[in-house]
Design brief:
- The chain is mainly α and 104 residues long.
- 96% of the residues lie in helices and 0% in strands.
- The radius of gyration is 44 Å and the shape is rod-shaped.
- The relative contact order is 0.03.
- InterPro entries: T_SNARE_dom (IPR000727).
- This is Methyl-accepting chemotaxis protein.
Length: 104
C-alpha cells in the first residue's frame, strides 16, 4: 500500500511540475503574443507615416516642377527683354546718326 501511495505521490509531483511548466509556457506565449501585437501596431504606424511622407514628397515634387516652369518662363521673358533692349539700342544709334546729319 505504501508503494501505491508513493507512486501516486510521484505521479502527483510530476503532474504538478507539468502544470507549472504549462502555466509558464502559457505566460510566455501570452507575452510573445502581446509583443507581436505591439510590433504590428508599430509597423502600421510606420506605414501610415510613410504614406504621409509620400504625399509630402509628391507635394514637394510638384512645387519643384512649378518653380522649374516659372524659371523657364522667366528665361524666355528675359531673352525677350534683352532682344527688345538691343532693338532700342539700335534705334538710339540710328537716331544719333540722323541727329548728326542735322548739325549746324
Amino acid at each position: 500500500m505504501k508503494e501505491v501511495a508513493r507512486a501516486i505521490q510521484a505521479t502527483s509531483d510530476v503532474v504538478s511540475i507539468i502544470a507549472t511548466a504549462v502555466e509558464e509556457q502559457s505566460a510566455a506565449t501570452q507575452e510573445i503574443s502581446a509583443n507581436v501585437l505591439q510590433a504590428a501596431e508599430g509597423i502600421e504606424e510606420v506605414n501610415r507615416n510613410m504614406a504621409g511622407m509620400n504625399g509630402f514628397v509628391q507635394s514637394i515634387r510638384e512645387d519643384i516642377e512649378g518653380v522649374d516652369e516659372i524659371s523657364r518662363s522667366m528665361h524666355t521673358v528675359s531673352s525677350d527683354v534683352n532682344a527688345r533692349a538691343k532693338e532700342v539700342s539700335d534705334m538710339a544709334e540710328g537716331l544719333q546718326v540722323l541727329i548728326g546729319r542735322f548739325s549746324l
